[in-house]
Design goal:
Structural class: alpha/beta
Number of helices: 14
Order of helices and strands: HHEHHEHEHEHEHEHEEHHHEHEEEH
Strand content: 5-15%
Number of domains: 2
Largest sheet: 7 strands, mixed
Oligomer: single chain
CATH architecture of the largest domain: 3-Layer(aba) Sandwich
CATH topology of the largest domain: Aspartate Aminotransferase, domain 2
CATH superfamily of the largest domain: Type I PLP-dependent aspartate aminotransferase-like (Major domain)
Length: 399
C-alpha cells in the first residue's frame, strides 16, 4: 500500500510560494536577494483596518465559533461592496466567507465539478487553478494565448477546446500572472458563448481594483445577466487592502451552490477567524483612499519595470493594465550561453538568474508553457531598479 494517496501525491507545490520561500531563506542567510516572486503588496495593512482588528480581540464573542458562512455583518458588507464596485445585486445567502481566496477557488471547483468533467483554463494561469481542478476530480484543458494576443484568449479558441465534457471556464481578469485585462466587449463575447453552451463560469475578481491606463474589469454576470445562475465569483481583501496574511476571501454564487459549499466548509475549516472577519468589515465599509494611494505606487512601478525589462536583450514585455505583475517573453534568451550555462527553458533561466545574480522570478512553467518569467512589482522602486539591472548585466554576457 502506498503511504500517500494518489490524489494528494499528484498535487504540485505552489511554484510562486516555493520561489518566495527560497528567496526569503537566502535573504535570511545574509544573501542580497531581491525577490520578484510573491504576489502580495509590500504595503502594511491600512491602520484603520488594523485598529478594528485590535478592538475585535477584546470582544468575547469573537473568541468563539461563529456561523460557517461568515459573520452576518461581513456578508452584508460584501453584498453592499459588490453593488458599489460591480453594480451586481446579490443577497447575503449568496455569499460564503472563506479562509482566503484560495479556499474559495478550491470549494468552487469541488462543489460543481464531477469526476471526468473538463474545465477550460486560459493559459497563462495562476498556478493553483489546475491543482484545485484535479482535486475536484476534473481535468484542466489549457487554452493558451501568447504575448501576440496580450495573453487574452478568444471565443474561437474556447470553442475549439470545448467538448461534451466541458463543465466550466475559469475566467480571471485582471490576470495573474500576466496583468492582462479583458475589455467589456471581450467579456460580453465570452459570457454569451458560455451561456449559449451551458458552461459554468468561475470568475476570479481578486484584482478588480488594480487597474491602469483607463482599463475596466466588468463583472461578467453584469455584462451578461443570463449567467447569474451559472456563475461563481471569487474575491477577497488580500490584494486590494494589502491583507494577504489575514486570510479572508469569499464566494458569490447561486444559493444552492453556496449552501453546498457551506456544508463542505463546515467540515473543512468551520468559520474564518472572527478577528480577521472584523478587519475585513472595516476594509469593505471604509473608503478606498488607501487603495487608490497604493494603486498610484503600483502604476509608477509598472511603468518602471516594463521599461527596464524591455531594455534587456532577448526580453519582450507587454505593458499590463491590471494587477501587479509583468510577464515578459524570454524566448530570445533561451539557447544562449551565459557564464558557461545554456538555459533552454525559462525554468533553467530562472535558476541561473537566482544562482548568478541573486534575483528571484517565477518561471513560465508554473503558469503554462515555457518561455516566460513572471515578475511581481509589489516591491520598492529601488529594488526594481537594482534587481532588473542585475539581470540585464547578466543577460548582456550571453553569446
Amino acid at each position: 500500500m502506498t503511504r500517500i494517496s494518489a490524489r494528494i501525491a499528484a498535487i504540485a507545490e505552489s511554484a510562486t510560494l516555493a520561489v518566495d520561500a527560497k528567496a526569503k531563506a537566502l535573504k535570511a542567510a545574509g544573501r542580497p536577494v531581491i525577490g520578484f516572486g510573491a504576489g502580495e503588496p509590500d504595503f502594511p495593512t491600512p491602520d484603520y483596518i488594523v485598529e478594528a482588528a485590535a478592538a475585535a480581540t477584546k470582544v468575547v464573542a469573537n473568541h468563539r465559533y461563529s456561523p460557517t458562512p461568515g459573520l452576518p455583518d461581513l456578508r452584508d458588507a460584501i453584498v453592499a461592496k459588490t453593488k458599489r464596485d460591480s453594480n451586481y445585486e446579490i443577497t447575503a445567502d449568496q455569499v460564503l466567507v472563506t479562509n482566503g481566496g484560495k479556499q474559495a477557488v478550491y470549494q468552487a471547483f469541488a462543489t460543481i465539478v464531477e469526476d471526468g468533467d473538463e474545465v477550460l483554463l486560459p493559459s497563462p494561469y495562476w498556478t493553483t487553478y489546475p491543482e484545485c481542478i484535479k482535486l475536484a476530480g476534473g481535468k484542466a484543458v489549457e487554452v493558451f494565448a501568447d504575448e501576440t494576443q496580450n495573453y487574452l484568449v478568444t471565443v474561437e479558441q474556447l470553442e475549439a477546446a470545448r467538448t461534451p465534457k466541458t463543465k466550466a471556464l475559469l475566467f480571471c481578469s485582471p490576470s495573474n500572472p500576466t496583468g492582462s485585462v479583458y475589455s467589456v466587449e471581450q467579456v460580453k463575447a465570452i459570457g454569451e458563448w458560455a451561456l449559449k453552451n451551458n458552461i459554468w463560469i468561475i470568475a476570479d475578481e481578486i484584482y478588480e481594483h488594480l487597474l491602469y491606463d483607463g482599463a475596466t474589469a466588468p463583472s461578467m454576470p453584469v455584462v451578461v445577466p443570463g449567467l447569474a445562475d451559472t456563475v461563481i465569483i471569487i474575491n477577497g481583501v488580500a490584494k486590494t487592502y494589502a491583507m494577504t496574511g489575514w486570510r479572508v476571501g469569499w464566494m458569490i454564487g447561486p444559493k444552492d451552490v453556496i449552501k453546498a459549499a457551506t456544508n463542505l466548509q463546515s467540515h473543512l475549516t468551520s468559520n474564518v477567524s472572527n478577528v480577521a472577519q472584523r478587519a475585513a468589515i472595516a476594509a469593505l465599509t471604509g473608503d478606498l483612499a488607501a487603495v487608490h494611494k497604493m494603486g498610484e505606487a503600483f502604476n509608477r512601478r509598472r511603468k518602471l519595470i516594463v521599461s527596464l525589462l524591455n531594455e534587456i536583450p532577448g526580453f519582450s514585455c507587454p505593458t499590463p493594465t491590471g494587477a501587479f505583475y509583468v510577464y515578459p517573453s524570454v524566448k530570445g534568451v533561451l539557447g544562449k550561453t551565459i557564464r558557461g550555462k545554456t538555459p533552454t527553458t525559462s525554468a533553467e533561466l530562472a535558476t541561473l538568474i537566482l544562482d548568478e545574480v541573486e534575483v528571484a522570478a517565477v518561471p513560465g512553467e508554473a503558469f503554462g508553457p515555457s518561455g516566460y518569467l513572471r515578475f511581481s512589482y509589489a516591491l520598492s522602486d529601488e529594488d526594481i531598479v537594482e534587481g532588473i539591472g542585475r539581470i540585464k548585466k547578466l543577460i548582456e554576457e550571453a553569446n
